[in-house]
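HUMAN:
Just now I want nothing more than another pair of eyes on a protein record. I would be glad if you read both lines and explained how they fit together. I have put the entry right below:
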Amino acid sequence: MNIILIPVYNDWKSLNYLLFQINEKISSKNLTKILIINDNSTQKINIERKKLNKIKEIEILTLKQNLGSQKSIAIGLNYLKKLNDTFYITVMDGDGEDNPSKISKMMSVAKKDLSRVVTSHRKKRNENYLIKFSYKIHLLVSLLLTWNWINFGNFSCFHSSNLNRILLNNNIWLAYSAGILKNCKVNKIYTTRQKRYFGNSKVNFLKLVEHSLRIIGVFYERVLVSSLLYIFVIYNYFSKFNNFFYFFIIILNILILFIKYKNYKKEPFSYKTFVKDTKKF
């Protein structure tokens, strides 16, 4: 069975179109269940079940408060961990930016190596130039500080045997992509990020900065080592930039730590703490 996990906040129109597209693209041979994490939407749940003949079941977990997509995904995976069965899990966004036609390919790659998470890496983004440029800066800064080129988001697929590793240490509570990269081995596929089905992207500069700091925060041990290394290099070879660079490094580390501990969850958690109710369609 393939379970598709989708975090949603208010955008039921896009979700319904996505479900229709998933139903068109998936094979009728595979039992498919949709698990929607309703991130305490202010709009009424609206699921159009008609014509979704290939989807076995739609289940909605409604959260007690709005927590954001990363924590919603973590709660959804924690919920799936309780199932006494083996299955494949696909995580994707509900706005259409993740291409449902790639689900079958990701599943076929996941089946070849059950110990790895298949991640969808972005060749192209459909956003304005400021966001595209900012994203490139994010990738570069992340590489310099964490030694990883983290150019994938939520869109991923894996066998349920990976759940314990993925949920280990709650890193995905902070940033899903970074948590996957830190806790698991990955197999990459490359796709173009699609345009949203309806409306404009919710990503803005400040949200991108915070998300970048959350991703970097997952690898904070490496960030600290990198910072000390760069300080050593500047001190010995570029001394005239000392004051500016030291100030920049200190402020950056403070921001990363602030965002990390603002969002990070140390102790183990149960989905029951955060879920208000469940519904099946």
